């Protein structure tokens, strides 16, 4: 390719690139505005600071009744028996022996780092035979029951949108973010 | 011609290198009978019926021992779901994007298809992709069949985020599925603005229901669980949401007494797909072939050992070698009889070398969760030519 033809080719390339840039607007104007009601209907997530928790409340004693009728068949009479995930159990001294001992089940009491996750997950996915069927009061009550069964809150504690985010979980301090280097940070061989 | 059982066994043994299974029918002379005409929908050859390996209610694996090249046929793409496969009518599908955005917006499926479409060939791997209790009679698909490669088509998530106007303080977004688990994961905004897709296509057609029809999030190179299927909602936020999947699950205890969270990237791995169980070798030249992949870019090299890891030689990489996609490798080996252990080891373009089981155990401890385990694995060629999985004890 001669010098001139190379220049022409380059110019053509730049033109093409510029043309594409012009063809892509800041916005396409596709889609429609979501109304507050439409957002509220789907926005069920709960964050660790309590954002998203609904009105309502529940106690451990109320939760025990619901647990026995709707949860115990999969998680066991006291949350320790299975056959599905073991929910209840602490590690002596609140240690973190999971890397060493595969037999220690990951429970709410010894592994879950945030109490709000218990509420969020029960509300969205439990019980698996009728997910999404529990009222907010029932979810608060089950959350209170499971936190009390794990020895994290007192028997009389009531869970609501003010109290639940304040519950400190024993395993919280053991969680660390991924420190592997991003691909771009690694040296090329 | 009468086919005996002995003929079939011999035929199966000779077909081993191709990973095919012989069947019991000999068709009549095809040059003497006119065949059937065209059909609206084709089917596999009757002798090439393939199946996923189904385990329980929530998992099925890709039968890599039966596949070639790098693309996984869509109906053999692995499955992992948390409350079954939902049935979603495409005309009622919508995706809501809200939170820290200027314009909370609802997109229909037709809306998503009006944006510029991108097609990208990528692997998708479940982070729990290792049969840790596998016995000798384990196939490649049983061992590590929770990875598959497809051409994914969709709209770049960055395009949608520009459309709704992401605020400067945005750092994460929550992706939520419309399955009965209403599965949620938090995703860093950097990935969303980089190469994330809202995918509606797979290998030239609509997504399979098991893969998230009508539309899913697709995060190239990252653990499969984060690529939320049946995507109904994205909420932009300044912090992660700490969902059940990213706290009590999909976190990895380490020997130093911590648990690693938000470990999205899948590191380099390779898997010999033939010869492997249930193949049986004949003496002579054997093609050792398999797939390698990495969440950190391209595969740079795959090494093969035929002496249990004592010596290694580089395999040939089959073009195309694509970033964040399965790469096919092959290595011709002369088996002269006698027991041999064959292994593969992937190296990616960042220099990362696929670890041994011992290296992983030293870092992670024997009790660690099964997530992100990518050890070098091997197959034993027995003296009689039978190939079995080289068992590994993890406890």
Class from secondary-structure proportions of chain B: mainly beta
In spatial order, strands of the major sheet of chain A run 2-3
Give the oligomeric state of the chains in this entry, treating copies of one chain as homo and distinct chains as hetero. heterodimer
C-alpha-based Rg of chain B, rounded: 23 Å
Q: Biggest sheet of chain B, strands in spatial order?
A: 5-4-13-8-9
Distance between the termini of chain A: 33 Å
Q: How big is the Rg of chain A?
A: 26 Å
Coarse shape of chain B: globular
The number of helical runs of chain A is: 6
Poorly predicted runs of chain B are 1-22
Ranges of chain A where pLDDT stays below 50 over 5 or more residues in a row are 1-5, 8-15
Q: How many strands in all of chain B?
A: 24
Write down the secondary-structure element order of chain A. Answer: HEHEHHHHEE
Count helical runs of chain B: 6
Strand content of chain B: 25-35%
Give the proportion of residues in helices of chain A.
25-40%
Overall pLDDT of chain A: 89
Helix fraction of chain B?
Answer: 10-25%
Largest sheet data of chain B: 5 strands, mixed
């Amino acid at each position: 390719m001669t010098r001139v033809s190379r220049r022409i080719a380059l110019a053509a390339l730049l033109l093409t690139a510029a043309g594409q840039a012009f063809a892509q607007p800041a916005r396409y104007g596709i889609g429609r505005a979501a109304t507050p009601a439409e957002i509220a209907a789907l926005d069920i997530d709960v964050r660790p600071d309590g954002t998203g928790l609904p009105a309502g409340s529940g106690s451990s004693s109320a939760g025990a009744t619901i647990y026995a009728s709707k949860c115990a068949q999969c998680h066991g009479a006291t949350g320790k028996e299975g056959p599905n995930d073991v929910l209840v159990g602490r590690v002596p001294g609140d240690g973190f022996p999971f890397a060493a001992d595969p037999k220690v089940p990951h429970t709410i009491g010894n592994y879950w780092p945030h109490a709000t996750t218990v509420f969020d997950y029960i509300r969205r996915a439990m019980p698996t035979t009728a997910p999404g069927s529990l009222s907010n009061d029932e979810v608060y009550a089950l959350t209170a029951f499971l936190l009390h069964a794990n020895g994290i809150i007192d028997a009389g504690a009531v869970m609501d949108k003010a109290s639940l985010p304040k519950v400190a979980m024993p395993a919280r301090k053991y969680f660390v973010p991924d420190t592997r280097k991003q691909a771009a940070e690694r040296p090329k061989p | 011609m009468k086919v005996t059982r002995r003929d079939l066994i011999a035929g199966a043994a000779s077909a081993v290198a191709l990973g095919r299974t012989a069947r019991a029918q000999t068709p009549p002379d095809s040059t003497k009978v006119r065949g059937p005409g065209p059909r609206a929908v084709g089917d596999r050859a009757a002798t090439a019926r393939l199946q996923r390996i189904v385990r329980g209610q929530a998992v099925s694996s890709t039968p890599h021992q039966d596949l070639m090249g790098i693309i996984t046929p869509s109906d053999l793409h692995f499955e992992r779901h948390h409350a079954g496969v939902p049935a979603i009518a495409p005309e009622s599908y919508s995706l809501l994007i809200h939170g820290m955005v200027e314009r909370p917006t609802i997109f229909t499926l037709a809306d998503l298809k009006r944006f510029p479409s991108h097609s990208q060939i990528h692997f998708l791997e479940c982070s729990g992709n290792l049969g840790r209790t596998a016995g000798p009679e384990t196939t490649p698909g049983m061992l590590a069949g929770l990875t598959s490669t497809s051409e994914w088509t969709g709209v770049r998530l960055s395009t949608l985020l520009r459309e709704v106007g992401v605020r400067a303080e945005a750092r994460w977004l929550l992706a939520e599925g419309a399955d009965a688990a209403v599965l949620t994961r938090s995703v860093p905004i950097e990935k969303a603005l980089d190469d994330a897709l809202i995918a509606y296509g797979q290998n030239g057609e609509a997504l399979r229901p098991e893969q998230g029809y009508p539309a899913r999030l697709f995060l190239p190179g990252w653990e499969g669980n984060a690529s939320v299927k049946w995507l109904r909602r994205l909420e932009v936020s300044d912090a992660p949401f700490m969902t059940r999947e990213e706290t009590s699950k999909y976190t990895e205890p380490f020997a130093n007494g911590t648990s690693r969270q938000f470990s999205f990237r899948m590191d380099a791995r390779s898997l010999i797909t033939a010869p492997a169980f249930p193949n049986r070798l004949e003496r002579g030249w054997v093609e050792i072939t398999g797939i390698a992949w990495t969440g950190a870019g391209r595969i740079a090299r795959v090494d093969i050992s035929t002496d249990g890891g004592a010596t290694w030689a580089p395999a040939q990489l089959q073009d195309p070698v694509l970033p964040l996609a399965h790469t096919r490798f092959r290595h011709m080996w002369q088996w002269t009889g006698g027991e041999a252990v064959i292994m593969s080891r992937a190296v990616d373009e960042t220099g990362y070398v696929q670890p041994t089981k011992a290296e992983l155990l030293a870092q992670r401890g024997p009790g660690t969760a099964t997530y992100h385990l990518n050890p070098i694995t091997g197959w034993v060629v027995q003296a009689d030519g039978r190939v079995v999985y080289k068992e590994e004890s993890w406890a």
